[in-house]
C-alpha cells in the first residue's frame, strides 16, 4: 500500500481580488499552504482560510513568498540569504498568530513560487530558509522540490522534510521543473497529470521532457488552487489515487 499527502496552495485572494472554488478544494486535500501576505493573501483572508482548513480537518502550513503582489510571487528577485531568512520568519509568524487563536499548531512550511524555485537550486538560500524554519520550531516539516537544494538543506539541519512533486508541471532531466516561461511547462490534460502522479508515487520516477526516467521521492503532491478547473481536478486526482490503492494522508497524521 502506497500513501501520499495532497497539498494545495490556498488563501491567495487579496483585498477585493477573490479566487473562486478555493474553499471547496479543502474537501479533497490533506495539507493547505496558506499565503502569508507577501505574494498574496491578507489578514482577513488568512484568518478565514485557517478557520476553513481547521473545519475541514486539513493540516495547515505557511506559504511564504517574495514581496511581489503584482507578479504573484513568481518573478525572481535578487535577495540575500539574510533577507530570505527574515522573510520566512516574518510570514510564518503572521500565520502562526491566527493558528494560536484556535489553539492549533502548524504542520509545515512551503516556500512559494520564485522563492521556492530559487531555493531549489541555490544552496545558500535553501540553508537560510531551512535555518529560519528550524529556529521557529524544529518540529515543523519543510516542503521542498524533490531532490532539490531545499530538501537537502532541511535534512542536513535535522528538520522533518517532505519531498514534493507536482501534478500539473513537466520535468527536466535534472529533476527540476520546466520553467513556466518555456513551452510545455504546464500539463493541462487531467488524465496525463494524474498518470504522472501515480507513476511518481508508485515507481519513484517521472518521465522528463527529454523522455528520460528521472528518479525522485514523492511524499506530497501539489495541486494549484488558482487553476481554472482546480476544484474538478482536486476531486479527480483524489478519486483516481484511491482507485490505485494509494492512501491519501497528511505528512503528520
TrEMBL record:
Its EC number(s): 3.5.2.9
Subunit comment: Forms a complex composed of PxpA, PxpB and PxpC.
Family recorded in the similarity comment: Belongs to the LamB/PxpA family.
Keywords on record: ATP-binding, Hydrolase, Nucleotide-binding
Protein name as it appears in the record: 5-oxoprolinase subunit A
Function: Catalyzes the cleavage of 5-oxoproline to form L-glutamate coupled to the hydrolysis of ATP to ADP and inorganic phosphate.
NCBIfam families cross-referenced by the UniProt entry: PRK05406.1-3, PRK05406.1-5
Enzyme class: hydrolase
CDD domains: LamB_YcsF_like (cd10787)
Taxonomy, superkingdom: Bacteria
Pfam families according to UniProt: LamB_YcsF (PF03746)
InterPro entries found in the cross-reference section: Glyco_hydro/deAcase_b/a-brl, LamB/YcsF/PxpA-like
Organism, as annotated: Bacillus badius
Catalytic activity: 5-oxo-L-proline + ATP + 2 H2O = L-glutamate + ADP + phosphate + H(+)
Amino acid at each position: 500500500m502506497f500513501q501520499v499527502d495532497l497539498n494545495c496552495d490556498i488563501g491567495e485572494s487579496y483585498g477585493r481580488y477573490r479566487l473562486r472554488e478555493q474553499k471547496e478544494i479543502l474537501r479533497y486535500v490533506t495539507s493547505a499552504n496558506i499565503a502569508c501576505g507577501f505574494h498574496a493573501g491578507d489578514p482577513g483572508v488568512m484568518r478565514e482560510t485557517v478557520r476553513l482548513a481547521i473545519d475541514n480537518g486539513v493540516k495547515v502550513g505557511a506559504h511564504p513568498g517574495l514581496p511581489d503582489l503584482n507578479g504573484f510571487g513568481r518573478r525572481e528577485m535578487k535577495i540575500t540569504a539574510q533577507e530570505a531568512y527574515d522573510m520566512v520568519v516574518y510570514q510564518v509568524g503572521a500565520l502562526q498568530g491566527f493558528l494560536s487563536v484556535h489553539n492549533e499548531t502548524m504542520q509545515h512550511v512551503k516556500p512559494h513560487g520564485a522563492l521556492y524555485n530559487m531555493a531549489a537550486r541555490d544552496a545558500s538560500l535553501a540553508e537560510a530558509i531551512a535555518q529560519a524554519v528550524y529556529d521557529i520550531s524544529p518540529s515543523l516539516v519543510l516542503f521542498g522540490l524533490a531532490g532539490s537544494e531545499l530538501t537537502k538543506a532541511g535534512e542536513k539541519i535535522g528538520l522533518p522534510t517532505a519531498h514534493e512533486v507536482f501534478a500539473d508541471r513537466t520535468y527536466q532531466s535534472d529533476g527540476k521543473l520546466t520553467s513556466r516561461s518555456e513551452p510545455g511547462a504546464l500539463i493541462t490534460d487531467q488524465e496525463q497529470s494524474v498518470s504522472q502522479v501515480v507513476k511518481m508515487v508508485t515507481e519513484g520516477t517521472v518521465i522528463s521532457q527529454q523522455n528520460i526516467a528521472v528518479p525522485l521521492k514523492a511524499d506530497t503532491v501539489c495541486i494549484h488552487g488558482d487553476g481554472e478547473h482546480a476544484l474538478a481536478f482536486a476531486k479527480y486526482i483524489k478519486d483516481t489515487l484511491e482507485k490505485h490503492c494509494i492512501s491519501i494522508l497528511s505528512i503528520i497524521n
